[in-house]
Amino acid sequence: IAAAVDIWARGPAALPPPRQPRTPVLPVEGERNVLITSALPYVNNVPHLGNIIGCVLSADTFARYCRLRNWNTLFVCGTDEYGTATETRALEEGLSPQELCDRYHAVHADVYAWFRISFDHFGRTTTPQQTRIAQDIFQRLLARGFLLQDTLEQLRCESCGRYLADRFVEGTCPFCGYAEARGDQCDKCGKLINAVELKNPQCKLCRGTPAAMPTQHLFLDLPKLEGRLEAWLERTWAAGDWTANARHITRTWLRDGLKPRCITRDLAWGTPVPLDGFRDKVFYVWFDAPIGYLSITANYTDQWERWWKNPQQ
User: Fold this and answer.
1) Among 3.40.50.150, 2.40.50.840, 2.170.220.10, 3.30.465.10, what is the CATH number of 156-212?
2) What band does 56 get if pLDDT is binned at 50, 70 and 90?
3) Which of 25, 118, 121, 148 is the most buried (most CB within 10 A)?
4) Where is the Methionyl/Leucyl tRNA synthetase domain positioned along the sequence (predicted)?
């Protein structure tokens, strides 16, 4: 603060010369290097003011501050394009999922450009780089024993010839009796639902009656990491960088012990699973989407690992 007051009193002539932008922006030895991302906005609709405020505006403000400080700054973002919600919206609009993503990615890019959000690169998750990096991370997890297989009961529609993701099922809520509950949540009572728990389930695609059938899926073996995670959390919490809310949520997850987390889905729209016996499945969007930060950077520069695998800078 004292330095800022001093420079303010001496006027603009006391400021250091502005950094000349490089393309691409890469970490520089001996300088402060700052990588900034925003939460990837979901692509199945037109962004509104809440998306701007809650998703990109704070990061943009910080990026502008960093550049004013002459810190070497890279600000990346992009649209999150896989998942059931995209497939559902595409069916509603009579488009393929790729056509829907192409349409709304352009809309998002135009809106953020109109607001002058200062991205160095605004990309998307439906790219060959995303497939390559996500599948590489999957193969590394598999080789190190952090994945397991298990059987789930899932609703299957024989008329459509497919297992139904949660949002492709409607039925009667088992808790409150609401007749139009979704396969993941009841909008009336707010409770989370497993689709196989619905009474009188219906396929949203053909209005047929699906039946519960077993299907094999892959899971992250989170219990195997629990001890190492708790030790790491204690060290990072001691540093004082976590908000009280973030600590509370994390402790809540750990309190009852971590459970295996399913990372595959019986869908057509998503990053393919590169493993025999599972090649008709795709990765669950919450396994896939966070990797979008890496792949979007990789689409910006083939030297992306200098940002993401470079903790010393």
Assistant:
1) 2.170.220.10
2) very high
3) 25
4) 34-311
